[in-house]
Amino acid sequence: MKSYLYNLGVIVITILFGQCGSTPKIEKTPPVKIAKPYFQKWYSGVAQGGSGFTVYIPVEEETKIVLQTAYFKERKIALQKEGTIYVGRYTYPETRKDLIMSDDPKKEFGNQLPVIEEKSPFTLKYNECIVSYKDGNKEGFFKINNLEEKDFIAYPSAKQ
């Protein structure tokens, strides 16, 4: 009886750990008709305004399939539906943050922890994007091979 429980335990642990390292299956064709997806970089004209990029995935017809996340440029980006277009916005984190360094921990209390972003689990080329979707209870992934880059948007600066 002891060896039976031991063997059962080993099998269960093997199955659990075996699933952790498995790569999700990526479909070659999207389950929805997509028009011309693209991305666009943007720059704020205001100091401390930031910069980033926006991913646009236009869907040609209404469907029950919901696009959830885009994995693009080593980032995980949440998608939101705006009409017939799924939009994912990403803002680069601030690179310069002043830190207070002191022997007195009370003076360092106002320091903020660095933002640790969730990286993409996929290795992609410059203009490749993987999209996660949900179709009822089924979740899946599909790849967009050539995401077009449109001219960047430079937002105007604030009046002086």
Chart the SSEs and their pairings.
Blueprint: H1 2-20, E1 26-27, E2 38-43, E3 51-58, E4 66-72, E5 75-78, E6 80-82, E7 85-91, E8 129-135, E9 138-144, E10 148-154
Parallel strand pairs: 1-9, 2-10
Antiparallel strand pairs: 2-3, 3-7, 4-5, 4-8, 6-7, 8-9
Compact description:
The protein contains one helix and ten strands, in the order αββββββββββ. The protein is mainly beta and 160 residues long.
Describe the 3D structure.
There is one protein chain. With 160 residues, this protein is mainly beta. It has one domain (27-154). 12% of the residues lie in helices and 36% in strands. It has one helix and ten strands; from the N terminus they run αββββββββββ. It has a five-stranded mixed β-sheet, with no helix packed on it. Strands 6-7-3-2-10 form a five-stranded mixed β-sheet, with no helix packed on it. Strand 4 (66-72) and strand 5 (75-78) form a beta hairpin. The longest helix has 19 residues, at 2-20. The radius of gyration is 22 Å and the shape is flat. The termini are far apart. The relative contact order is 0.24. The model has no long low-confidence stretch (mean pLDDT 78).
